[in-house]
Amino acid sequence: MSIFEAIRSALTAIGANALRSALTMLGIIIGVAAVIAMVAIGSGARERVTSQIKSLGANLAIIQSGNVTQGGARLGAGASSTLTDEDAGAILKEVEDVVAAAPAIFTRAQAVYAGTNWSTQITATDLDFFAAREWDVAEGRLFEPEELRKGEIVAIIGQTVAKNLFGEQNPLDQQFRIRNVPFKVIGVMAPKGQSALGQDQDDVIFVPLDTGRRRIIGRNYARDRSVQTIMVKFANEGAIAPGIEQTGALLRQRHRLMADQDDDFIVRNLTEIANTATQAATTLSWLLAAVAGVSLLVGGIGIMNIMLVSVTERTREIGLRLAVGARQRDILAQFLIEATTLATIGGAVGIALGVGSALTIANIAGWPSVVSIETILVAVGVSGMIGVFFGFYPARQAARLDPIEALRRE
Amino acid sequence: MPLIEARELSRVYDLDSGRVTALDRVSLDIEAGDLVAVMGPSGSGKSTFMNLIGCLDRPTGGHYRLDGVAVETLSSDGLAELRNRKLGFVFQQFNLLPRVDACANVELPMVYAGADRKARRERALAALGRVGLAERAHHRPMQLSGGQQQRVAIARALVNEPRLLLADEPTGALDSRTALEILALFQDLNREGVTVVLVTHDAEVARHARRVIRFRDGHLLSDQRQQPADARAALAALDAAPPVYPETEIHAEALP
Ligand SMILES: Nc1ncnc2c1ncn2[C@@H]1O[C@H](COP(=O)(O)OP(=O)(O)OP(=O)(O)O)[C@@H](O)[C@H]1O
Ligand SMILES: [Mg+2]
Hints:
The structure holds 2 protein chains of 2 kinds. Chain A is of the alpha+beta class. Chain A has 13 helices and 14 strands. Chain A has 2 domains: 3-53 and 276-408, no CATH class; 98-234, no CATH class. Chain A has a 6-stranded mixed barrel, surrounded by 4 helices. In chain A, strands 2-3 form a two-stranded antiparallel sheet. In chain A, strands 4-12 form a two-stranded antiparallel ribbon. In chain A, helix 2 packs antiparallel against helix 12 (373-399) and helix 9 (270-313) packs antiparallel against helix 11 (328-365). Helix content of chain B is 38%, strand content 26%. The longest helix of chain B is centred in the last third of the chain and has 16 residues, at 176-191. By secondary structure, chain B is of the alpha/beta class. Classes of the chains: A alpha+beta, B alpha/beta. The interface between A and B is medium-sized, with 22 and 26 residues.
């Protein structure tokens, strides 16, 4: 009997008990669908975390001023501006393997252009910021060193700002106002998308550090060189930990802290945070896959159960087949093929269901859809293997029947 | 060389409740081309004997040669092949597969003989033609009468052209006329050279055999040759003189 014929006769047997077969398949259908959907959700989440981390830039540490003790009360991060842009310069010069050290001040303000206004984040920084974030303009240019040094009134805007302030117009060389100061647009950033916290990173206006400080926040450059954060980019991942160590020592020395005084700054290793997040996402996807795997296992047990019932019901048929010349292995093959066919059909339906729900979920969550051919092939293989594995015991029971006993059974 | 050579053939069941000797040292030859009826009371070992000569069971003692082959030496695959090529079985309960049609039922032994689909179909249709069911080839067992189902079972037993046809109570579930038709079929096949052994406890059925073997308590009791009654002739007689129903007679007398 060819395998094709064997499958056809298995289909006949499956069709003879259509409802029962369908219910049995349901276990596999749900199991396979769950595995595919869960793996897709898991890797979708991981991919999203990874892409957000990538959008932040690799090998970054962020130094925030703060944690100052005033009269016994410890104030939180950012409570006091203890960092300066000179600290940033010192870090770049003295700490090993630092590629960029970007001082930055953040504030929210309203930008106005020809009757339109748009409230957005203003980031006052220097060129190192763009190097650290690995972010460039899509149109126009970045700041010139001269513009930074002189604190000229120029701005580079994010995609969201460009859209909301200028609409269809080309924003380059246009003038808009922030707190009544007229800024000239010299560049538009490339799109960056959402941050790990769900913020729109394109909703931003960059201005030179001193311009922001004097014109927008209204501080006196001569007396106040403080910044909120310094973003430090290292040459490679291995350089981060020793670099952070050196940076801490350097800042303590520069801030003239005594040995018994706490740091007046906080250093965060973004790569470490990113790795933790990726790890969490990986763990999550394994967990989801394991839960789905359990339901697949339950589906397999369902197949075993129904095959055992089927062997019992068809004992006389088995006896007859043995009487007309079937060998034990023919009977074994017959029931194995039946179990495998049952599992594979269930698997196919499960794949359709799983891919459907994975795509729907990805669509709703706004993830890249990550149903891969590999997942599908693995699901087909696994459901076939479940048929073989869980079908083997019942099939062996069938093959070992004594022909006379089997024929006599009611 | 006889087709069947049984020497001191025994079958003992070891049960928790004790030993049951179903067949006790039976020695017997059956020549090719014979038509043998096996008789005896219930529990006398008829089915046990059939299962042994049909290679469905192994003896616990003695020797058995089928067509010159010492069956004890064969593996279970070897026995399966022997059943497939040399033997055909007919059962009291027909044992047809309910989900497939008559033709597919008849094809079953050829499936295990490894014949290709086309050859199988052709030979199955030929076998069905031989038992007079050519036009019922695509009916399912449920759509056939008992006699027709038994004829499908006979076609299935014949399809691999076996040396020996074994039938355990083949007419047990049929009325006497249908039983006669089945017996006529066996006699036709026997004339064509097929050796037939049939188990029955009906003396009327046994009349159609050339040889009658009787068992009692697992022993061979008697072994007689006889002039077989002709089943075809009996059927023709039945058709020529249809039975007169008693009610009809009473009714006729009651007429004024
Ligand atoms: N599987 C078995 N286990 C135990 N004893 C058995 C088994 N099969 C048959 N026997 C015993 O062997 C004896 C012969 O049984 P067998 O079936 O050959 O009788 P039989 O002549 O075919 O009877 P019947 O006309 O009722 O079919 C009986 O006493 C029966 O109880
Ligand atoms: Mg019997």
